[in-house]
Amino acid sequence: MAELAKEAGITVRTLRFYRERKLIPPPRREGRIAWYNEHHLARLRTIGALLERGHTLGGIGELLAAFESGRDVGELLGLDAPLVPPWSEETPVRLTPEELADHFRDDITPENLTASLDIGYLAVDGDEFVHISRRLLDASTELVNKGVPLAAVLEAGRQVRAHADALADLFTALIRTHVLADVLPATPTDRPPTPQDVGRIADTIDKLRPLPKGVVEAELSMAMDRRIRREIEQWLRACGDEEDGEGG
């Protein structure tokens, strides 16, 4: 169980909770040992992807039950082996209303809750909330603790989401046009893709996975350096102007 939780990027406690909710099938047992396999890992990644898209655990459970009963929702859930693993490594967080209030105190207003649900940061599951990302939750909490209003954090998050979507479109177009065209020169209209084609696509994309993240992190770091340096220079000039005025 610990190995599966680590591979899926969740805690053992979260994995036990999913088992209790029957969101993953039971493991194969040999005596006191429970064995999990790639099917369990794929199911956990599917749950994470659906939570990220705003689905509740209750809704996910209904969809999984429908799939296992033979109804045609497999494509919707992505329970078949995915072409490539999810790019996101985010871990969802379950929160009671009291725990959510501990993070944001007086900033928990109907307007901010509505905005969080609209952006997709929060989903409601029964009497609890599910936040799509531990890292985003921690960053939002720290910003609010430093004095940034939650409404401003959420608006910034909305803008970051739009820029992130634009960056993803840019990198996807680059990969599709200049990389996958070489891997698969034949278009889908020439012939149907073979398992070998699918394997080459998955392998190529997996190797490219770190590059967009590295480019964005490097550019953002340098942009922050430029902006902070400019802000400090402007502040120093303003201080100098005030001193000159007093001296005159």
TrEMBL record:
SMART domains: HTH_MERR (SM00422). It holds the Pfam family MerR_1. Keywords: DNA-binding. InterPro entries: DNA-bd_dom_put_sf (IPR009061), MerR-type_HTH_dom (IPR000551), MerR_fam (IPR047057). It comes from the Bacteria. GO terms for molecular function: DNA binding; DNA-binding transcription factor activity. PROSITE patterns: HTH_MERR_2. Residues 1-66 form the HTH merR-type domain. This is MerR family transcriptional regulator. It comes from Streptomyces natalensis ATCC 27448.
